[in-house]
User: Fold this.
Amino acid sequence: MFSTEFLDLPPLVGAHGSVILPGSKSISNRVLLLAALSQGITTVHDLLDSDDTRVMLAALRQIGCGVQQDGSTVVIEGLGGQLPKAAAIQLFMGNAGTAMRPLTAALAVMGGNYELSGVPRMHERPIGDLVDALRQLGCQIDYLGQDGYPPLRIGQPTLRLDEAIPVRGDVSSQFLTALLMALPLVATRDIVINVVGELISKPYIEITLNLLARFGIAVQREGWARFTIPKGSRYQSPGSIHIEADASSASYFIALGAIASGSSGKDSIKVMGVGADSIQGDIRFVEAARQMGAQITSGPNWLEISRGSWPLKAIDLDCNHIPDAAMTLAVMALYANGTTTLSNIASWRVKETDRIAAMASELRKLGATVEEGADFIRVTPPATKADWKAASIHTYDDHRVAMCFSLAAFNPAQQPVRILDPKCVAKTFPDYFEVLFSVTHATTNTIPVLCIDGPTASGKGTLAAQVAQRLGYHFLDSGALYRVTALAALRAGLSLEPQCEQAIAELARQLPVRFVGEQILLDGQDVSEAIRSEEGGMNASKVSALPAVRTALVALQHSFCQLPGLVADGRDMGTVIFPGAPLKVFLTASAQHRAERRYKQLISKGISTTIDILRADLEARDTRDSSRAVAPLKPAQDALLLDNSDLSIEKSVTMVLNWWQDKQPFKPA
Assistant:
């Protein structure tokens, strides 16, 4: 998962391949709570691993539920509708509405001593209509802050079940879901819920009803206005249950196929884990995407999408049935042939952020003309290619804003897009950007590369690794490639002298090397320590002086240039391997400073030496590297020189990042 302050997306030009979606958040958190309330043990398969599900699991453990987790499989030992007696418990619910609302209702009807709070945005999300309905039942709920909003304190109820319970349907369907899930716990008689006003987000109620039936609760309904929990209802574990992939998350890849896969029909995006028979309402996003021109085929557990009409067709759509996925349509509208209107989306205002305001603001940054109202948004794309703008997208700690706007990187003006706070996608799809990059591609010359070259012991590896981490880019330690090549040659019984040059080059072409975090794997074996010795460095210098070996490793080094970008360190990254890189840094320090640094490193490892010996060795190595016939060590003509003799690594990183920022079309984050 990207944990960087921002993530820059270079211009993307196409997409092809298959993606496996994470489990549905809506289904995952409902199933977890239903399993906890049930009698018996429930094994939940394919559970979504996200911030929201972690919040729910933590809360269930706190209230006394047995939870055992092994990857995406979780075993829940149900409470049988009875909470164990406990002292006051404080539950932190993050910004997870699918956990906060139903758990509030369940705890309120069962009773106890609980405080439920969340992040500041959760304390801005209304819950008053749910609390009013629960209070009418006799539940004891107090506001600990502003009336109508979390945080809440829950006490012991004095239940009254003789009257129908009214709940507003036009604020959030989660209020009705919460009551439907909680009331079977106290159904000593038929309990009636009346929905006041139009019920929004009806498909999410369909999910709730479907899952209640799986756990033994047969809710009777009269349209969308009246629901009855039958007397004697009791939760019973189904034994095991599988979580469908998230249909809302599918919307980004459906849109991706419609926008980017090409008009030939040969390229497509295949989405695995959810299909036409999904119980999730957001699967109807498929219909909307088809209206805009996407070509989509489907099976019971898959969708395949390719570009059809281009540009896409503007639509006017009531989106009550796809409230979350409709956000993706707003970004698809950037590629349409006119003005798209999405209406009946008032629920956007009370989600993780005010999504109508957020989408309008960020779409305008890209050059779109946007009109917004209380329950609609109207989007007209940039009139010409020249009207598109590079934009830094504020994500408002809202996962769906971040994922939606990644699609703007396909703009015809080839403008990059910056996503601020990309880690917010962890709420539902922690590895969203990794999955996106696995099926998208860019022209090679638009993938950003930052080169950091310099002599031995200048600190270029440490600097490059930290810059790559801050940018969320791939990292290439070219010196490690030469060290691994030397090690592989010696293990193969080859000398590192010129007479073995061709044999070493042939070995280098087939070099089975991988970088996994800080580990360097040779044919699956961790050789990190073996190649980082002084001897490993000397051997690397020997093989790097062999022209045939350097040629063999050029293609391997080019292969590291992958989305979203690359930071490469070495001695010829800017001069030979990536001469077109937009930023080249030549890092150096005096031989004395480098010798002192190396001395501290070796002494810390218990290796005896002197600074004078190390300085002489470094000076000799500098001379050898700068005078070799092939790719001698020297700054590229357009490289920026950075002498870090007296700079900390933090200051060096900051300086390089500032240079990089100066070359971007975005204002500082």
